[in-house]
């Protein structure tokens, strides 16, 4: 799973220690996946695996969870072969490392409430639950939390990016940065080990066609209707320009690539644009597949680029004590 480093202006633990949390996140994912997989193979209930909870979770009662309600699942040889082949990527893990027992580590225990028939089905259920945990992981620290808009839990693009890409990818999802003390919202910034990908999403009606006709405005065609829209390349170029300037001022040397993305529509653009990749409904699956099979581990310059961006972001958060008082008053 790609790592959600910054979500809008929410607090991020990666701002505190970017050298530690990426490995800790992947380690946590691996421990729980191995545990769920073992239980799926044996069909037996395991003792509850407990990790240090955050302060507000300590008072909650801990229950032993049976993932499969004591179903004894028999696996044939083919399924066992698939079990060995299907793995959640853990590129950052040094198997000799352990997660330090600290209060800033969140608690995650998946609750599989029905019996998956295949390892792929089990993996999907696990990742869907881990996605919700990841949103919490990316919007809280030991001392602070941010109120998360529920729309992000339903955001299919965010879910797809996080669940499809490798652990070594760092994601900034519509981060708000401060430029000369003014807040500026970017689109999606994807830091891979070798490049920075700036992504602007253009999605409206299914099957809509976006025709690039001018510098200022494009035409959106849907059925028999036509409508003028602002040229999305303006926002994409602006984002690339800001990030490029930030990198240059901080001696970050990493190439920047621009992507105009539409999962449900089509681009009709005459000619080509330098350093811009048009990914529409026809190319989306192949584009995702190419990035999914990226195998490089995290790089020093990638971490440096992430740190520089995190120094520029705006953060809106609340002290945990305030959060708990408000909950008690509800």
Characterize the structure shown:
The protein is an alpha/beta fold and 330 residues long. Helices cover 33% and strands 18% of the residues. It contains eight helices and 14 strands. The chain has a six-stranded mixed beta sheet, sandwiched between helices. Strands 10-9-8-12 form a four-stranded mixed beta sheet, with no helix packed on it. It has a two-stranded antiparallel ribbon with strand order 2-14. A hairpin with a 2-residue loop joins β4 (176-179) and β5. α1 runs antiparallel to α3 (119-137). The radius of gyration is 22 Å and the shape is globular. 27% of the residues are buried.
Care to count the β-strands? 14
Give the topology string: H per helix, E per strand.
EHHHEHEEEEEEEEHEEEHHEH
Radius of gyration: 22 Å
| SS field, number of helical segments | 8
Detail the poorly predicted runs: 46-91, 93-105
Query: Order of strands across the widest beta sheet?
Result: 1-3-6-7-11-13
Sum up the overall morphology in one term. Answer: globular
Query: Helical amount among residues, as a percent range?
Result: 25-40%
State mean pLDDT (0 to 100 scale): 80
Structural class: alpha/beta
The N- and C-terminal alpha carbons lie at a distance of 35 Å
Beta-strand percentage?
15-25%
């Amino acid at each position: 799973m790609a790592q959600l480093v910054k979500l809008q202006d929410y607090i991020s633990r990666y701002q505190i220690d970017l050298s530690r949390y990426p490995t800790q996140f992947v380690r946590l994912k691996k421990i729980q996946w191995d545990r769920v997989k073992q239980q799926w193979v044996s069909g037996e209930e395991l003792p509850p695996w407990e990790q240090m909870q955050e302060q507000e979770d300590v008072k909650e009662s801990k229950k032993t969870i049976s993932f499969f309600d004591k179903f004894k699942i028999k696996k044939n040889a083919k399924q066992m072969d698939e079990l060995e082949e299907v793995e959640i990527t853990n590129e950052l893990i040094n198997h000799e490392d352990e997660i330090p027992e600290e209060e800033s580590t969140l608690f995650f225990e998946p609750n599989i409430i029905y019996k998956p028939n295949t390892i792929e089905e089990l993996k999907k259920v696990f990742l869907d639950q881990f996605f919700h945990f990841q949103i919490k992981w990316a919007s809280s620290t030991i001392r602070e939390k941010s109120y998360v808009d529920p729309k992000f839990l339903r955001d299919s693009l965010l879910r797809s990016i996080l669940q499809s890409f490798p652990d070594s990818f760092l994601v900034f999802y519509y981060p708000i940065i401060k430029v000369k003390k003014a807040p500026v919202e970017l689109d999606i910034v994807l830091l891979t080990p070798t490049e920075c990908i700036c992504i602007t999403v253009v999605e409206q009606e299914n099957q809509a066609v976006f025709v690039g006709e001018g510098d200022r405005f494009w035409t959106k065609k849907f059925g028999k209707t036509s409508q003028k829209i602002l040229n999305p390349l303006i926002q994409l170029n602006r984002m690339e320009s800001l990030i490029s300037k930030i990198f240059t001022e901080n001696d970050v040397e990493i190439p920047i690539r621009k992507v105009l993305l539409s999962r449900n529509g089509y681009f009709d653009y005459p000619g080509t644009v330098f350093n811009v990749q048009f990914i529409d409904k026809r190319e989306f699956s192949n584009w995702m597949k190419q990035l999914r099979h990226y195998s490089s581990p995290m790089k020093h310059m990638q971490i440096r680029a992430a740190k520089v961006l995190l120094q520029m972001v705006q953060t809106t958060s609340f002290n945990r004590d305030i959060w708990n008082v408000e909950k008690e008053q509800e």
